[in-house]
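Hi there,

I know you've been waiting on this one. I reran it after we fixed the sequence typo, so this is the corrected version. Both the input and the resulting structure follow.
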Amino acid sequence: MLLSRAKPATGPATVEEKEKKKKKLPKLEDFVGARDYTGAVTLLEFERANKKNDIQTAMWIAYCYFHLGDYKRCLKEYTEITEMKGAPPEVWVYLGCTMFFLGMYKEAEEACGKGPTSKLQNRLMFHLSHKFNDEKKLMSFHKNLQDIVEDQLSLASIHYLRSHYQEAIDIYKRVLLENREFLALNVYVALCYYKLDYYDVSQEVLAVYLQHFPDSTVAINLKACNHFRLYNGKAAEAELKNLSDVCSPSFKFASDLIKHNLVVFRAGESALQVLPPLIDVIPEARLNLVIYYLRQDDIQEAYNHFKDVSPTTPQEYILKGVVNAALGQEQGLNDHIKIAQQYFQLVGGSASECDTIPGRQCMASCFFLLKQFEDVLIYLNSIKSYFYNEDQFNYNFGQAKAATGNYKEAEEIFLMIQSEKMKADYVYLGWLARCYIMNRKPRLAWELYLKQETSSESFSLLQLIANDCYKMGQFYYSAKAFDVLERLDPNPEYWEGKRGACIGLFQQIIAGHEPRETLREILAILRNTGNAQVEYIIRIMKKWAKDNRVSVT
């Protein structure tokens, strides 16, 4: 072991070495290379403050703001550059790109037209044509696209926006095969699979990217959305918490996205505070606000927020159909029901949606509104395994079963519903009461009525029980129902119904189909009426009771 050295291991540092140890000034290239645009723009603003206010510096500042998602600040920078002497002509195309991201499509087209012809200009005009729904121009710019990465990715994004998800996947996979280092394309592929409802496949593809970039805002958000679809809102919220922990306060888009998705994951909590300001920022914000109003039974407000929207995606067509159907049924407006039926048929009959679960739900809804319940069941039966414990599905499935006369299965389906709100709804009570009566359980139908408070709906339920029990020969509960109806409303029709039910029950007692003790109750029910025919009917019943030794006192 060496305990001493002939020469020191290190000597006094030279002036040159001291200079090297001095902290290096950061360079713009380092910031941009590391995607640290906040650091880059800070450096550039510092240089500009120190009188380096040339076009090149301004262009880099605008570039950084663009990549930070601060498009308003970027717009200000590019606008000022266009007014500078010697500004490069391509700045107009960059200005157009910025306006595009701000939703200023007309202004973007005008600015882009002032720039020189280039591949970027063609791509921007291609996307603007899609926004303007100008198919002729779209195809014209489509022809100019070349087999280069930027143009192919632009084409894939248009496929995605037009809901042609498989075509987009094909392009992304081809580009990824030739450029393995383009890891971000995995996120785009995962997003397409998400839109196709392949949430587990989406997760697998997404995992490839997250292994390399675990703090990616878009990827973590998509993972949370997959969890929401595969599991529940709590699982999704747990994933989203990771995103709120890592995202920078300056990254506005991420914070808006988190706020929006948390509303969805929490079943609409704080929707009115969060969603309205985001309507022009996040496309789904308007849709989720409309869904919130529908869940709150504020159908008119839902319609007001959506009436001027021209649907372009299957989700928008479906929501348009739901809103119109709800409004039409609530206010008795047949025109809205016809519009809803057309929207549902359009989605359910389309080649891209006909074999999806939402597509089949749409066809079921279309036939439901047309009251063609046999056809409704064809579609609902094909997807029932996906909605076994889903109250809304069972609510509609039960109605369709009952409407086609399958009351036994309908009763079982209705009893699976857990929602107290649905179970208190008159439509549910009415169908369940009818199922009980048709399945020869009139006592359960009568108990449903007894649990109700006095209202117009309980009166309607009473009418249903009275008439359906009469139709099925269940005269005891029919007589009881008609008796209550007559006391609430002295309508001659209720007396006639009660009279017929009492005589029918008397006939069943004579035939031995009902216990003789019931005769006492019949007489009590009849005495509640002041009609002249009552005494004659009572006299005949009493005579039979006396002859057959039946006590009626």
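Quick highlight: Residues 1-11 have pLDDT under 50 and may be disordered.

Best,
R. S.
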